[in-house]
């Protein structure tokens, strides 16, 4: 570690963040992802609250970039693995995660006996955080097949679940209006 720097590991929304405080850094905050973990470089004087605020903002930005850039089955499978570790302690390990052009009424489906997850191809053009919410929902089905209280607690670990549910309800409503 360099002189005039201080390293600290903190947990933000279930993810470890390495915070590097520097006496030489006066105003800027930068972030990078190294081996799947966020590394935040901040001025020494920045309060813990401000550090956490910046960490959340960068996590959100990196998650959105990762979700929106990868629209292949392979990228979807990798994203599911990341979400499994981050929100479900890595317990669900799907056999496959694929886009499905055949799913028109459901956003996602899981065959818990085979470990297969399918997401509606309609989600490809939606925000990454919405896709992530559907993935977490389907991953939770690999732990708990029914929609009971345990399942709902697992799904609620993803912080934007309610927001994504509302977004998808709006899309479904608009689709229904277009068909009438």
UniProtKB/TrEMBL annotation:
Cited PANTHER family: UNCHARACTERIZED PROTEIN YGJP, UTP PYROPHOSPHATASE
| Gene3D superfamilies in the cross-refs | Metalloproteases ('zincins'), catalytic domain
Q: What is the lineage of its organism?
A: Bacteria, Bacillati, Actinomycetota, Actinomycetes, Micrococcales
Name the Pfam families for this protein: YgjP-like (PF01863)
InterPro entries named in the record: UTP_pyrophosphatase-like (IPR053136), YgjP-like_metallopeptidase (IPR002725)
Domain called YgjP-like metallopeptidase: residue spans: 45-166
Residue ranges that the Swiss-Prot or TrEMBL entry lists as coiled coil = none
Q: What is this protein called?
A: M48 family metallopeptidase
């Amino acid at each position: 570690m360099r002189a005039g720097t201080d390293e600290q590991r903190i947990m933000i929304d279930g993810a470890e963040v390495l915070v590097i405080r520097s006496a030489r850094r006066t105003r800027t905050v930068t972030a990078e992802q190294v081996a799947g973990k966020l590394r935040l470089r901040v001025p020494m004087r920045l309060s813990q609250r401000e550090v956490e605020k910046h960490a959340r903002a960068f996590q959100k930005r990196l998650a959105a970039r990762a979700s929106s850039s990868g629209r292949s089955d392979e990228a979807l499978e990798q994203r599911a693995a990341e979400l499994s570790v981050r929100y479900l302690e890595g317990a669900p390990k799907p056999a496959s995660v694929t886009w499905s052009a055949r799913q028109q009424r459901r956003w996602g489906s899981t065959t818990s006996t085979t470990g297969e997850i399918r997401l509606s191809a309609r989600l490809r053009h939606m925000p990454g955080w919405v896709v992530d919410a559907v993935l977490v929902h389907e991953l939770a089905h690999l732990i708990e097949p029914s929609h009971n209280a345990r399942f709902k607690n697992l799904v609620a670990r993803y912080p934007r679940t309610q927001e994504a549910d509302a977004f998808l309800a709006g899309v479904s409503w608009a689709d229904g209006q277009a068909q009438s």
